[in-house]
Amino acid sequence: MFETLMTTEEKIKSEDMENYFRIPVDSRNLNYEKYFSSGNNEIIRIEPYTSSNTQQLDIEGTKKKLLGVDYVQKWLAESQKRGQSE
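Given the sequence above, the corresponding structure tokens read:
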């Protein structure tokens, strides 16, 4: 079992921003006739982005990722200051 993180259709339209995918808003109208009559063969060749085909972090990888977040670094620094002053 896995979690779908980005559908095939979203992946086709997405922009890889290195650390995340940017998926533009779906601004189509509600006329789905062209999708049922002509289709999009490109969808068939692209695999959806799921938790089973992406890099999954172990505990050490998760720690490293969290330590790279400014908010977490700031919180840890403040926690250490509070611990030293007690």
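Residues 1-54 form one domain. Try to locate this feature in the token string yourself.
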